[in-house]
Amino acid sequence: MSFPHPFTPEAKLAEAKKRLNLPRIVVICGSTRFMTEMTEADLRETGAGRIVVKPAFDTRSPHGPRSGPGGADALKARLAALHRAKIRLADEVLVVGDHIGDSTRAEITYARSLGKPVRFTHPEVDPGA
């Protein structure tokens, strides 16, 4: 007797979100130099009925998290892993800002490798266009 293949974790998550009747989840990506624009995008997306996740703080800010000597790279790696988890959770990605750096480019590539739709506030910076 043949049994159907179990759902992938991604398929299980999508099914759970559907059963819970959750609105679309949008993750905001971009350079933290665009934190003000990210907040504005958060307001627009929330107003459109979407759940929004985004970076919580600018690590360059004096109010951001601090680490001891040599800890900056570890902190950056932890935050990058956390943001990749946000991308996996989301239904789509919104890239904010008129500049795409290496980290944001990697996030776009990762999101597209997962089949996530990617939108841009400035479509002309889309590295895949």
Write up what this structure looks like.
The chain is an alpha/beta fold and 129 residues long. The protein has one domain (21-57, 68-123): 3-Layer(aba) Sandwich (Rossmann fold). It contains four helices and four strands. Strands 2-1-3-4 form a four-stranded parallel sheet, with helices on both faces. α2 links the parallel β1 (25-29) and β2 (51-53). The model has no long low-confidence stretch (mean pLDDT 89).
Compact description:
The protein is of the alpha/beta class and 129 residues long.
Q: Unreliable stretches, pLDDT < 50, 5 or more residues? A: none
Cα-to-Cα separation, first versus last residue: 48 Å
Instruction: Please give the share of residues in helix.
Output: 40-55%
Sheet with the most strands: spatial strand order = 2-1-3-4
CATH topology: Rossmann fold
CATH superfamily grouping: Response regulator
Q: Quickly give the structural class.
A: alpha/beta
